[in-house]
Amino acid sequence: MERIEIRWHGRGGQGTITAAKVFADACLSGGRFVQAFPEYGPERAGAPLRAYNRISSKELRMHCPVTHPDVVVVVDPTLIESIDVTEGAKENTVFIINSSKDPKELRKKLGLKPTQKLYVVDATKIAIECFGRPMPNSPMVGALNKVTGLVSLEILLEDVRKSFGKKFSQKIIDGNLLAVKRGYEEVKEE
Fold this sequence. Notes:
7 helices; 22% strand; alpha/beta; 7-stranded mixed β-sheet; Pyruvate-ferredoxin Oxidoreductase, domain 3
């Protein structure tokens, strides 16, 4: 894999930007070149936003939004109703959706091509069970790592521990580590 481009869709306050940064940090620790950056609309909780990752085996010189993603991560499934998360998707783009809905129903709703893979994980449920808040970012990072295989789970967990360790109690850190593991283990291909 020379370069992979990821587009994240979420809402302000769900940790989507943090998830993109944590994933990039883990890939950096795994020896890759990385970029992680957000694209905001109105900066308020609940507002739709996008974040982007570029991960490469070579130095990255491109500095623009990801318009034709290899992977699309949908942190907030309600966005499927209001924006086109498939915009710019390639024939082989992979979609990872936080949802409890039937994957076949999601595939149909999104109008995905047979060549586009769909993975689903109930990240909100995992987050509530692991640390008591509907913050699906950690399970989505785990799911993304499982689907892409860009770094080992151990490296990812160490980077989650480092990035959350500066701001949160041990209980919250442990809950997020468990949520990452569960996202990794529970993501399913449609």
